[in-house]
Amino acid sequence: MSAKVAIRCSCGHRISAKEVLRHGIFMHRYRPLYAYVRYRCARCKRLGEKLIDYDMWDQSVLHQPSGELTEEERDRFARMDEIQPDEVIQFVAGVRRLKMRDLAALRKP
Ligand SMILES: [Zn+2]
Question: How many angstroms from the chain centroid is the CA of residue 47?
Answer without folding.
Answer: 18
